[in-house]
Amino acid sequence: MIGEGLTIRGLRVSFDGYTAVDGVDLDVHPGDLRFLIGPNGAGKTTLVDAVTGLVKATGSVRFGTDEGDGTELIGKPVHKIARLGIGRTFQTATVFEELTVLQNLDIAAGAGRGPLTMLRRRKGVPDAVAKALETTGLTELRDRPAGVLAHGQKQWLEIGMLLVQDVRLLLLDEPVAGMSHEEREATGELLQRVSEDSRRTVVVIEHDMDFMRAFARSVTVLHAGKVLSEGTVAEVQADPKVQEVYLGRARDEESTAPAAAGPPGEKPTPTPTASAQEA
Amino acid sequence: MTTTSAPTTTPAPETASERAFDRFRVPGGFALGAVLLLAVAPLALSDFRLALLAKYLCWAMVAVGVSLAWGRGGLLVLGQGVFFGLGGYAMAMHLKLADAADTGVPGALPDFMQLYGTGEALPWWWAPFANPVFALAATVLLPMAVAALLGFFVFRRRVRSAYFAILSQALAAALAIWLVGQQATTGGTNGLTDFQGFFGYDLDDPANQRTVYFIIAVSLLLLMAAARQLFVSRYGELLVAVRNSEERVRFLGYNPANVKLVAYVVAAGMAGLAGALFVPAVGIISPALIGVVPSIGFVIGAAVGGRGSLVGAVLGAIAVAWAQSTLSDAFPAAWTYLQGLLFVLAVGFLPGGLASLGAVVRRNRSRTRTGTRSGEAA
Fold first, then answer.
1. Contact B234 A98 (CB under 8 A)
2. Which residues of A touch B245 (CB under 8 A)?
3. What is the pLDDT of residue A68?
4. Which tens digit of pLDDT belongs to each residue from B302-329?
5. B241 CB near a chain A CB, below 8 Å?
6. Which residue has better confidence, A10 or B15?
7. Where are the alpha helices (DSSP H) in B67-131?
8. Residues of B with CB below 8 A from A108's CB?
9. Three-state SS annotation for chain A
10. Which residues span the membrane (chain B) (predicted)?
């Protein structure tokens, strides 16, 4: 029996009276590639912050794997949550710039190493690291300092770091923001490969609707801290509530809202509604 | 401190001869250092010069710890005087008690207590230092314990960079002020001095002073070897990772507070051992040697030589110590300003210190070259 994946019930996050996440229920099962979308300020990143322990939250977040039943994550410190097999990336790629690609991956693979191993020098390349280099296509660059990598390569390195960590839940915050078209394609294929492993659960926060349509297996729309709609890409696009939110924003703010939501330097991203009407 | 740190990766060697050179560079350099310290210096230097070198090497031992905590871990340890002082006073208290016992008078107090003290019994916290094993262990373990306690609270509360530096500095000031106020039990401003013997050996005998020098030189080499192992170990890589992005390390399942704590505690132990060996070599430990100014001095040597490089930090510490004793005699007022200027220049313009000078020049030259080339292309 495969574990039940991520189960969120009544999640609530407030900052000084402002409620960023307002009673979210969410289930993501292993093998899924779930996209979290929504207008700016919908609470997407805050939701991920709450799951990974970065912000204080109330409610319940459980994550169950095939090895163990879901333990409650709320109230646990960041590094303990990470050790339960939950990993994330950030909007701006955060890698250890002064260390090589190989060293970055080796550190990611090493939480839980004993003190004696830590005090010794690394010999060779651990299997998991070699595999992650292969999967992310960074084998050639392994001895380069991570700081000199291109933007897209840094994001892939981050995903590779999650893979060697052997995380069961990957939470990716806008992994393709600022990427070229080719880099987007490569990233999407990488995410599909990663989520094919039925032990893994992948959640992607994304603003880019083309990217979402091309690679999402399921979609959750957040709006004003609440779940607005959930289902397949087609179901979500056909949902009148979703259309209202995106259309309403478009009406209120003219064409600025979708453009602001899209990645910088790209053509204004079509909203789900717009494309639903096209179809 | 993350953006201004020295590069830690060396480019992969190209040819077989370069690879062979790379393999023998570290053991070869270590052997060379050992020959210089253990054979050349004792033969070439007079007793007076050798004693001065012994003092500089003690400061260099502190720099080894600074190179680990600051150079690798990004922890600006501006209060190493606390740990140097704890080690020094632990050793000095033992030597004072041993001297008093040697007088043959039962229950004799150390000389300064007879002068300034109440003339009553030995303070309870002095008593255990009569035991040589306890005192020796305390020179290293006491600073480490204090650092562990301090670091536990400071790093868990996520006190960082500038605040951490100010806190360390304040502690050094506090310890020095407290010692000055305790004339009767610590010797006050005078500190503890005028030691006769060192574990049964007469400290006035030049031969024994040479032995003290050898103990210090060997200790420095051992500390450098230990630090080098930490640098190249997985722990060393993790420490750099924590300096680069503490938050990211946390999301990988490590507790960065513990990673920093190890570097801080090890550096404190090294400073403690340095302080302990400083006492027989120089013959005094006093608040003036462990307060704010000397604490900054411990860091300046490493900054000038190169905090990211072990050898750079050690040579920098020795050079700055030498410059201090040479120049401060000739221009006592100017030295303080020069010291401050050196620190600012090193941190501001050459963050890798003199050790990185070669790499910086090479990088600039290649940048000019590629610049010309791309200019031609355009």
1. no
2. 94-96
3. 58
4. 999 888 889 999 999 999 999 888 887 7
5. yes
6. A10
7. 80-102, 111-116
8. 252
9. CCCCEEEEEEEEEEECCEEEEEEEEEEECCCCEEEEECCCCCCHHHHHHHHCCCCCCEEEEEEECCCCCCEECCCCCHHHHHHCCEEECCCCCCCCCCCEHHHHHHHHHCCCCCHHHHHCECCCCCHHHHHHHHHHCCHHHCCCEHHHCCHHHHHHHHHHHHHHCCCCEEEEECCCCCCCHHHHHHHHHHHHHHHHCCCCEEEEECCCHHHHHHHCCEEEEEECCEEEEEECHHHHHHCHHHHHHHHHHHHHHCCHHHHHHCCCCCCCCCCHHHHHHHC
10. 26-45, 51-70, 75-95, 133-155, 162-181, 211-231, 252-271, 277-301, 308-325, 337-361
Residue from the list B7, B229, B253 with its beta carbon closest to the beta carbon of A111:
B253
Q: Is A103 on the interface with B (CB under 8 A)?
A: yes
Ranges of each domain in chain B: 49-291
Q: Say whether the ipTM exceeds 0.90.
A: no
Nearest CA in chain B to A93: B248
Q: Among candidates A153, A168, A67, which has minimal Cα distance to A105?
A: A153
Report pLDDT for A258.
44
List CB contacts (< 8 A) between B228 and chain A: none
Whether A165 sits inside 8 A of B253 (CB atoms) is: yes
Q: Nearest C-alpha of chain B: how many angstroms from A207?
A: 23
- Say if residues B357 and B350 touch (Cβ distance below 8 Å): yes
Quote the number of domains for chain A.
1
pLDDT tens for each residue of B197-248: 999 898 889 899 999 999 999 999 999 999 999 999 999 999 999 999 898 8
Which residues of chain B neighbour A97 with C-beta distances below 8 Å?
Answer: 244
Q: What is the CA radius of gyration of chain A?
A: 19
Nearest to B238 by CA among B253, B219, B225: B253
Give me the pLDDT at residue A151, please. Answer: 87
pLDDT digits (tens, 9 = 90+) for B252-283: 989 999 999 999 999 999 999 999 999 999 99
Q: Select the residue of B232, B240, B250 nearest A99 (Cβ to Cβ).
A: B240
- CA separation, residue B178 to residues B129, B182, B185, B286, B287 (Å): 20, 6, 11, 12, 9
Using a CB-CB distance cutoff of 8 angstroms, which residues of chain B are in contact with residue A88? 251
Domain range holding A36? 5-278
Whether residues B244 and A82 touch (CB distance < 8 A) is answered with no
Task: Out of A87, A112, A119, name the one closest to residue B235 (CB).
Answer: A119
pLDDT at B116: 72
The yes-or-no verdict on residue B22 having pLDDT over 60 is yes
pTM: 0.84
- Classify burial at A255, counting beta carbons within 10 Å of its beta carbon; exposed 0-12, middle 13-18, buried 19 or more: exposed
Question: pLDDT tens, B66-98?
Answer: 999 999 999 999 999 999 999 999 999 999 999
Name, in order, each residue with C-beta under 8 angstroms of A266's C-beta and a sequence gap of 6 or more.
A208
Kindly state the tokens that stand for A67. 């090895």
CATH number of the domain where residue A99 is located: 3.40.50.300
CB-based contact (8 Å) between A102 and chain B? no
**Cα separation of A222 and A242, whole Å?**
9
